[in-house]
Structures are given as C-alpha cells and as structure tokens.
Specification:
alpha/beta, Rossmann fold, globular
Length: 398
C-alpha cells in the first residue's frame, strides 16, 4: 500500500462514512476500526443511541469487534459491551501500529471515552462491577484499565480476576500436571486400591469363575490394580520469561496460571519473570497468579535480550535448565545481544523454548525472522497450549 493510499484511508476513517462517495470504501480491517470509532463518537450525534458504521467486515466471528457489533443498540451493563470495546481498540490500534503517531489511536480513544462519554464505568464503577459476570473478556478489560481504578474498585476487580483465574486453574491443572505423574506399570500388580489404577480387564477375566447364573451378575471377589512407575528425576529449573506487551495479553494470563501449576510440581524449580524494557521477577508471587496479573504493565517497548540475560543469571545447572521465552519476537533493542545470549545459553547446555503464543487457541503472530535466527542457534520455537507445554517440559526432564 502506497503512502498516498494510507493517507486516504486515515482521512476516510477520521471523517466518517459520509465521505465514502468522495474518499471511497474501507478494506475489512479498516472497517473494524471504523466500527470501533463509531461505537464511541456516534454518541456525539445520536446521544446514547449506537449505530453501526460500515458493514460487518472481517471473518473472525469470535473477535471482540464481532461481539461488539452483535450487541450494538444496547448499553445494558450485563452485555459487557464496554469491555469488548476496550479489548477491541487495543487489538485494532496496538502501540506498534503507526496511526497518526505511535500509540496515538488507543490513547486518544481511551481519553475521549473517559472524559467525554464516561465509558470507563463498566470497569471502574463498583455497582456495575458487582453485577458483572466473571469472564476472560472482563479479565482482559480489567487488566487494561486497572490503572484508572481507585482502591475500592481495584479490590472488587481483584476479586473478579481471582474468580476467572480459579476457573482457569481448575480447567488446566489436570492437563498440566498429568505429564508429570507416574505411568501405569501393567507388568506388576499393586495392593494399593486406587480407582485410577484399577485394572478392569484383568479383574473381569480372573473373576469369571464367580459368575452367578441365578443373579446373572459377576461377583468380584478379587479386584486387581496396576502399580505405577515412579519417575525419578533430578530437580530441573524452569525459567519462564513473559513479554507483557499488549498483543501478548492472552499468553500473559495463561503463563501466570501455568507457572502457578508448575510451581507445585516437585520435579521443577520454577521462576517467573515479566518483561518489557525492564525485567520484573515475580517468582515470589508464583503461587498466586492473581498477584502476578495485577502487576502486569501492558504496552511499552520490548527488550528480549535483557530478559534472556537476566535468565542467564538464574541458571544453577545449565544441563538441568529450561528457559521458556514467551514473546512475539518483535525486539526493540539491538538483536545482536539477544542472539549472543541465546547462543551462550544453548552452548552451556540450557534448553530454550520460544513460544509465540501460549493459550488455548495457540494462534501465533510473531517476527519470523528473529525467531528463525534463534532456531538456527539451537532454540525451539512454536506455539502451544498449556497442556502441550507441560508435555514438552515433562519429556525434557525425564
């Protein structure tokens, strides 16, 4: 796209759909932006009545913008329209997007939402928060607006975050813990009667002689159980580095939950660090992912090399250490430092796994050039769900 075409699209977006005849239409991704802007500024002309600007555009039916379109026409707080809008503008106008000037779009939209239309109350009003249904959508909106909250509202928001996190832990705990539990040893019987070790085929086969014709029932006189092989492993270090840029929010949430589950696995010594242009070691809060998430500062620059250098200072036994780098690989600092530290770690025996996404969808969006350069040095790069990450780590520590 040429500079003149970009200028036309920007003016078309600023002036609105009434200029479509003179400036033309908008491509799909720009229609999503127009919908987001219209959700806010159409109030100027029609009070609190929301109208849709542009057509539906895009094909992502699960995106915040699609949910926002489906809900336009109502400001009922239970619809969570405002949290959807908050999440949408951060996806459509990320800080790295050049739109008028770096970071201008979502800053301007948030400022007008707060000062002119008071849309922040969905995530800053205690009465509305008390009626809100906990969800990951609301969790992300809270993390993006917690800097606006007073202490009373922040305490309520923390409770909402805790409810969502507890649901995530309940959903993910078994998937993450299972790869680290002992495997069944079907060659050896066990006298410890545990339901998950019950050997149904052997029990049925060896008790067939006790079948009662009169009752037409199989009488189990002797149940059989398998023993388990205990995996004897040396304690490994897992150092998890998480990029807290806005585009990585889903991964930040799942990283905090996964690290908390890892922290309870005896074969692992887990560290958790958040980074942008500085590094914050939140290992002390690892058992409480809520505290970790409330310390997240979204946005800002990215210095991946500095985070890797900090991880290097934590390494105790290189051949028993895994560094899990969760980032989009868009490095803001000189790339040479990142590659140099990566090479040093790998040559010392440290295993490095770079994840462009860690969430339930595992849909990556990342700088493939830098990721490939790390792979060339011996790192592994991909996108995983928390369960897949646990399986990968368990295989390495066996």
């Amino acid at each position: 796209m040429t500079d003149s075409q970009k200028r036309r699209l920007r003016w078309r977006l600023v002036l609105g759909e009434t200029t479509e005849n003179t400036l033309g239409g908008l491509p799909d991704e720009w229609q999503d932006r127009e919908t987001a802007i219209g959700f806010l500024y159409d109030r100027e002309l029609q009070g609190q009545n929301i109208r849709s600007r542009g057509n539906s555009g895009g094909n992502n039916r699960d995106s915040p913008m699609e949910r926002l379109r489906q809900r336009q026409g109502s400001l009922d707080p239970s619809n969570l329209t405002v949290p959807d809008w908050i999440n949408a503008i951060h996806e459509l106008f990320p800080q790295k997007t050049i739109f008028l000037r770096k970071g201008f779009a979502n800053e301007r939209l948030e400022k007008d939402a707060l000062e002119r239309y008071h849309l922040e109350e969905m995530v800053t009003n205690p009465n509305l928060l008390s009626r809100a249904q906990p969800s990951e959508t609301l969790l992300k909106a809270v993390l993006r607006t917690k800097h606006l909250m007073n202490q009373q509202v922040l305490a309520m928001a923390r409770d909402l975050v805790r409810k969502v996190v507890e649901e995530l832990i309940e959903k993910l705990a078994q998937k993450v813990q299972s790869p680290f539990t002992g495997s069944l040893n079907r060659q050896q019987r066990s006298y410890i009667k545990i339901a998950k070790n019950f050997d149904a085929p052997t029990t049925i086969r060896r008790n067939l002689k006790h079948y009662s014709q009169e009752r037409q029932q199989l009488v189990i006189q002797t149940p059989y159980f398998n023993s388990r092989i205990r995996r004897q492993v040396e304690r490994w270090q897992s150092i998890i580095l998480v990029d807290e840029s806005g585009s990585m929010l889903d991964s930040v949430i799942h990283s905090a939950v996964t690290a908390a589950i890892f922290f309870g696995i005896k074969s692992l010594k887990t560290h958790l660090c958040l980074f942008d242009t500085s590094v914050v070691d939140v290992t002390a809060d690892c058992t409480d992912p809520v505290e970790t998430l409330m310390k997240v500062q979204l946005g800002g620059g990215t210095d991946i090399g500095q985070a890797m250098a900090y991880a290097q200072t934590l390494v105790e036994n290189p051949r028993r250490t895994i560094v899990i780098l969760i980032t989009d690989f868009y490095e803001g600092a000189p790339v040479d430092r990142l590659l140099s530290v990566t090479k040093q770690l790998i040559e010392s025996g440290v295993k490095i796994l770079g994840l462009a996404a860690l969430d339930e969808q595992a849909n990556p969006n990342f700088d493939r050039d830098i990721a490939q350069r790390m792979v060339n040095l011996g790192a592994q790069v991909g996108a995983m769900t928390p369960g897949e990450l646990a399986t990968w780590v368990a295989e390495k520590v066996r």
